[in-house]
Design goal:
The chain is mainly alpha-helical. It is built from four helices and no strands. It has helices at about 5-15, 40-50, 60-65, 65-75.
């Protein structure tokens, strides 16, 4: 799956968690812009892992601060 298709799929997965209706871009941060707390992050990561059939390690999660980084990580994990 290419980056654009992956980004589109992740954007759809973010929707239920995007309580404030923030416009999503590569620079959108999870903690700052979307105000995700640790529980929301865990639920969102689980949704990503299930949908893409991948595992995002805790170390990888710690490095992902914005939407663009997440899309790149998922593309890379898909091989």
């Amino acid at each position: 799956m290419d980056r654009a298709a992956t980004a589109e799929k992740i954007a759809a997965l973010i929707e239920p968690f995007n309580k404030k209706g923030v416009a999503i871009s590569d620079a959108t941060t999870f903690a700052g812009d979307l105000e995700f707390d640790s529980l929301t992050v865990m639920d969102f990561v689980a949704a990503i892992e299930d949908d893409f059939d991948i595992i995002i390690t805790m170390n990888q999660q710690a490095e992902i601060e914005n939407y663009g980084q997440l899309v790149d990580a998922v593309v890379k994990l898909q091989g």
